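Why DNA topoisomerase (ATP-hydrolyzing)? Reviewers of the renewal asked for a concrete example.
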Amino acid sequence: TKRQIYYHNPTLFRSQRNIDHLLDSLAATFRLTRRDLGICAAGKGLVYGEVHIDGAYFGGEGGGLIPPSFSPGSVFLAMDVRGILLVEKETIFRALSSLRSGVVQEGLVMLCGKGYPDLNTRSLLLLLREKGVERVSALVDFDPDGVEIAGTYKFGSTLLAHERVAVSGVEVIGVLSQDVVSLITAVAPASGGGGGGGSRVVVATLTPRDRKKALALLTRPWISTTPLWKVEIQRMLFWGIKCEVE
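Here is what the prediction returned.
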C-alpha cells in the first residue's frame, strides 16, 4: 500500500502527501493507473449488497470495507442487482444497511466513500457498471461538498484524470432543493406557525468556505453538461442555506 511505501523510509519521504504526489506523477507520466503499478491505498470505502469480492460476501450485516487490491475477475454480482446507491456518509450507510430486506428487495448495491471517494471506491463503481448495472444514484448533502462528491464519481477528479474511473451515468436523487423546501414547509407549522423558526431545525447557513466552493463549482468545465446541478448550486447561493441528509 501507499502507507507501507512511506514507512520504508519516512525520513526520505517526509510525508504521505509526498508519496501520493510522486505515485500519481509516475502513473500519469507512463499513462498507467496505480493498479497497473501494483500500488493501492489502505481500505476506506464501504460496500453492502448482494456482491462477492475476493471470495468475501458483502450482503451480511453492515457490509464491509472494499478490499484494497481486488481484481475484476474476483467480483461477482447477484442476478437481481439492478442499481447502485452511492452514499456520502457512513452514518447513513450504516442506517440503510441495517434495513437489509429493503435494500436487497430493491436490488441495490450500496457504496460509501466516507465523504470524498477514494480511487478504490470509484474503481469498484466503474467495474460494477461495466458488469451491467445501469442505474447509479447518489445520496449526498445539499451543500457544495455534496455536489462535488457526486461530481467526483460522475466526472472524475482533476488530479487523477489519468486513472479514467469516471461513471457518467451518476444521478443525484437527494438531498435536492425541492426536498429542502418540503422539509421547511413540514416543520414550520409544528413550530407554532412562524416560518423562520422551523427552518432552523433542518437547514444551516452557508459558511464563507461553502460560498467560495459553490462559486468555484460554477466555473468547472462539466457544470454546463449538468444544468440541474447548476440550478441546485445557484439556489444554495441565493438562499444562503445548506441541508444534510440526516
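The chain is about 45% helix and 15% strand. This is the kind of structural detail the renewal will allow us to pursue systematically.
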